[in-house]
């Protein structure tokens, strides 16, 4: 029998986005993560509870489209990702998993 938590852990990972917009939204209790892999809102909520010991109020999933680029006469694509916006109640915080350099 496969453990559900172990199966979920292998399916996707949450990577905290450190951008200017994401940092300003953290003051309002909204944390932004990049998803690597496929996940739904319930799986993301379970991972946040497991990793950060906080319970999210709601979660929004945003698909960022790929963009067409031309570099030195060659066409290609760049970008394309899936973001998860995790809303927490007032007083709950998530510490940065990535050290921020000053």
UniProtKB/TrEMBL annotation:
The keyword Chaperone does not apply. The keyword Ribonucleoprotein applies. It comes from the Bacteria. InterPro entries: Nucleotide-bd_a/b_plait_sf, Ribosomal_uL23-like, Ribosomal_uL23/eL15/eS24_sf. Keywords: Ribonucleoprotein, Ribosomal protein. GO terms for molecular function: structural constituent of ribosome. GO terms for biological process: translation. One of its GO terms (cellular component) is ribonucleoprotein complex. SUPFAM superfamilies: Ribosomal proteins S24e, L23 and L15e. It holds the Pfam family Ribosomal_L23. Belongs to the universal ribosomal protein uL23 family. This is 50S ribosomal protein L23.
């Amino acid at each position: 029998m496969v453990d559900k938590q172990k199966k979920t852990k292998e399916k996707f990972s949450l990577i905290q986005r450190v951008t200017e917009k994401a940092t300003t939204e953290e003051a309002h209790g909204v944390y932004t993560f990049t998803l690597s892999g496929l996940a739904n809102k319930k799986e993301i909520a379970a991972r946040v509870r497991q990793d950060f010991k906080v319970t999210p109020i709601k979660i929004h999933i945003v698909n960022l489209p790929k963009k067409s680029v031309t570099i030195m006469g060659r066409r290609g694509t760049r970008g394309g990702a899936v973001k998860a916006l995790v809303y927490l109640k007032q007083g709950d915080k998530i510490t940065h998993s990535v050290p921020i350099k000053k």
